[in-house]
Design a protein that fits this description.
Strand content: 5-15%
Number of helices: 23
Helix content: 40-55%
Shape: elongated
Largest sheet: 7 strands, parallel
Radius of gyration: 26 Å
Strand order of the largest sheet: 3-4-2-5-6-1-7
Bound molecules: adenosine-5'-diphosphate, zinc ion
Number of strands: 17
Length: 530
């Protein structure tokens, strides 16, 4: 095989212009393409929308043989092949959804060298028949898309990806390029190790998405807050709304439709036909809102998604970054909006506590959640904090996030924290009873509810000692203490409990700075009952 050097460079630019119709490369596309076209291995980390596909598609067209693209996104293979066919490239795919005749036709084309690119699902590559097929053809390169799926700690882990290390053993001379939009250096190292990409050159792009405005608001009446966002700032825009559960996806979609918003649900509980139809409608129409679980979105290439809203807290910063990254691929101003509340923290801490898997696994989940909570509670620029998590420094605050635009006040919440922790301590001593945040707040505010009088909590010394704050502020205090690990939740009922670190606050050895709960923004929601 000739080793392409200088000629390949001109060829790459020529292909970019002639085949894809673009004038210039973006970012380090050209370097990657030259490196892979010349037979080198590469690990490419680029944010969503950065232009990863061309990094393997152009080498595929420049090099002799067929490029084998491993992708977990079976539902999108047809679209990818159609898009390539439309620009005159020869592409096909093999996956489990195909009928035997279509399959045989693609196999024949592959063997005859009549393809430039062949898309394969990772599970297919593990089969003897696929491996024998590949042995009989001429492979120009392997592209491993969504390479973070090999990471066992990640949220998209696919066991089939682990087997991809065999590519190097079985076809040692074939260059490999792994691509992902997941950015932490831990994930990067894991990908390189698990895929045996030890000699690969790493190409790491900036993960900043300057056109996305990050906003994290405190959750009150989430659906109404969402509706206000859509009506005030994104009327008629396409967007994605993420919810944790299928039930809340359905309810939220119904709610939006009832309020005149064109919305569709998407989750794994819907049958495959409905899911595919909803996804197609989203991709093809202008102003549709997709309400979905995180099952939706990986690999979706819709440039004009104007907002991504989260009604529930993502489990990790990686997940948050990936999901919000689906907004604004076209570079135009877009919104990433998250409503976050006490219940999110309680629920996720509980889920981790009761999750299957060993201690190491639960610790890992907890560490991911803590980073996400820190992003929610920060008084710093969100973008600075977000990029910092990915090991990237911004020199100054971004000017395009909620903390930059509307700087939050921080306040010394040490005394409030002590009052709350004392209340939890008092309740903790009633060992048979279980009380959550609601009861604590009622006691602090001196409310004689049925449940307060029933248990005689109005005679506790802490009864009514917290009237200087309102209910929302107290809930904010609970949330921030939970977020910082100064308070814990236990059991099925969200019972509050002290942690080892609580003692430092109670003993005045630690001050607690808190983010002030903003006044309810006038346009976000009308007062209850109005
Ligand atoms: P990723 O896979 O990194 O999310 P894609 O490869 O899907 O991103 O590219 C995102 C969009 O940018 C696509 O619409 C693609 O056609 C476009 N694009 C990629 N590279 C260029 C370029 N050099 N010039 C103009 N548009 C580009
Ligand atoms: Zn900012």
């Amino acid at each position: 095989m000739p080793s392409p050097t200088a000629p390949a460079v001109g060829a790459a630019l020529d292909v970019l212009r002639r085949v894809f119709g673009y004038d210039a490369f973006r970012g380090f596309q050209q370097e990657v393409i030259e490196h892979v076209a010349a037979g080198g291995d590469a690990l490419v980390l680029m944010p969503t929308g950065g232009g990863k596909s061309l990094c393997y598609q152009i080498p595929a067209l420049v090099r002799d043989g067929v490029a084998v693209v491993v992708s977990p996104l079976i539902a999108l293979m047809q679209d990818q092949v159609d898009a390539l066919t439309a620009v005159g490239a020869r592409a096909g795919f093999l996956n489990s959804t195909q009928d035997p005749a279509a399959r045989r036709a693609v196999e024949a084309a592959f063997l005859a060298g009549e393809l430039d690119l062949l898309y394969l699902a990772p599970e297919a590559l593990g089969t003897r028949s696929a491996q024998q097929l590949l042995d009989r053809g001429r492979i120009s390169l392997f592209a491993i898309d969504e390479a973070h799926c090999v990471s066992q700690w990640g949220h998209d882990f696919r066991p089939d990806y682990l087997a991809l290390s065999m590519l190097h053993e079985r076809w040692p001379g074939v260059p490999r390029i792994a691509l992902t939009a997941t950015a932490t250096s831990a994930t990067r190292t894991e990908i390189a190790t698990r895929l045996s990409l030890t000699d690969a050159r790493h190409f790491v792009a900036s993960f900043d998405r300057p056109n996305i405005q990050y906003r994290i608001v405190s959750k009150r009446e989430p659906r109404k807050q969402l509706l206000a966002l859509l009506r005030d700032e994104h009327p008629g825009d396409a967007g994605i709304v993420y919810c944790l559960s299928r039930a809340s996806v359905d309810k939220t979609a119904e709610f939006l439709v009832a309020n005149g918003i064109d919305a569709l649900p998407y989750h794994a509980g819907l049958d495959a036909t409905t899911r595919a139809a909803n996804q197609q409608r989203f991709l093809r129409s202008d102003g549709l809102v997709m309400v979905a679980t995180i099952a939706f979105g990986m690999g979706i290439d819709k440039p004009d998604v104007r907002f991504v809203a989260h009604l529930d807290l993502p489990k990790s910063v990686e997940g948050y970054y990936q999901e919000t990254g689906r907004a604004g691929r076209d570079g135009l101003p877009s919104t990433a909006w998250l409503a976050y509340g006490l219940q999110d923290v309680v629920q996720q801490r509980k889920m981790i506590e009761t999750s299957e898997g060993d201690l190491a696994h639960r610790r890992n989940l907890a560490a991911h959640l803590d980073a996400m909570l820190a992003l929610c509670e920060t008084v710093r620029c969100r973008r600075v904090q977000l990029l910092d998590y990915f090991g990237e420094r911004l020199d100054s605050p971004c000017g395009n996030c909620d903390t930059c635009l509307d700087p939050p006040q921080s306040w010394d919440g040490t005394v409030a924290a002590q009052k709350l922790l004392s209340t939890v301590f008092r309740l903790d001593r009633e060992r048979n009873q279980r009380f959550g945040a609601g009861q604590c707040v009622d006691i602090l505010l001196g409310r004689r509810t049925d449940k307060v009088t029933q248990f005689g909590h109005d005679s506790l010394t802490v009864f009514g000692i917290g009237t200087e704050l309102g209910e929302a502020e107290w809930r904010g205090v609970v949330r921030q203490l939970l977020a910082e690990g100064l308070l814990a939740v236990e059991g099925d009922y969200g019972t509050l409990a002290l942690t080892d670190a609580s003692a430092e606050v109670l003993g005045r050895r630690r001050t607690v700075m808190m983010r002030r709960e903003p006044e309810r923004p006038a346009r976000t929601a009308k007062p209850r009952g109005a």
